[in-house]
Amino acid sequence: MSHHPQHTGAPAVLTALVVDDSAAARHRISTLLILGGWRVHEAAGMDAALRLAAAVDPDLVVTDMVMRSGRGTSLMRRLRENGSRARFVVTAAARTQQVRALAASAGAVACLAKPVDPRLFVDVMKGLTPAGTTEVPTAPAAEPETSQRAEEMYASALPHRLAAIVAAARAGDAAGVAGTAELLAAVSAQVGHADVAAVSTALGRDARRGVVPQGRLMELVRVCSRAEGRRFADVAPA
């Protein structure tokens, strides 16, 4: 099983498999993992997940609890039967005590509510250790090309994330502002844009209280412009 870390001195790039019927949910998790240095594969259901797992031997599987093709607990048990040594994380729209117990009994190390809070997800990743190792599998020592790829992804997505935040603010959707701002904060922190992360975190905190200050939105546009060396006049709040 060559994908699992070995003590050879050189850090391995860890592999994750993200399983969910929802493309948006998969993208949310995959973005955080990729920016953390993981190699990520996605599957839209149990059958695809089993095929991919056999091919790539993931170190981590993040699966939805309830999918059209079956339950995440069934997927985890099938993977174990097939010899997988991956760590499992479950996401669930209804994170009840019963769901958490079912996830734990199937071998999950964490059960997270959907939509996944990016800050909580990053914290969970920091606390995970692959079986048989003593290293924390978050952002393995980034190679130059990995860092460059993460920065390129960040720069490409930044205008869209800003536009989504501003659109939600204009629509009076404080929850939408909070969720998008928190995701931006998490990915900004991972790629080293601390100023964007700080303002996004503050905006998300305001939005969770039902308030979206115009001044905070303008501040976010300014720090994003500085981060990428360009102006975002087309997404600035009116």
Automatic annotation (TrEMBL):
List of residues that carry 4-aspartylphosphate: D64
Please state every residue range assigned to the domain named Response regulatory.
15-129
Q: Please report a single Pfam family linked to this protein.
A: Response_reg
Q: Where does this protein have coiled-coil stretches?
A: none
Q: Which SMART domains match?
A: REC
Q: Which UniProt keywords apply?
A: Phosphoprotein
Q: Quote the InterPro entries the UniProt record gives.
A: Bact_response_regulator, CheY-like_superfamily, Sig_transdc_resp-reg_receiver
What GO biological process terms does the UniProt entry carry, in alphabetical order?
phosphorelay signal transduction system
UniProt xrefs under PANTHER family: RESPONSE REGULATORY DOMAIN-CONTAINING PROTEIN, STRESS RESPONSE REGULATOR PROTEIN 1
The name this protein carries in UniProt is Response regulator receiver domain-containing protein
* Species per Swiss-Prot/TrEMBL record: Blastococcus haudaquaticus
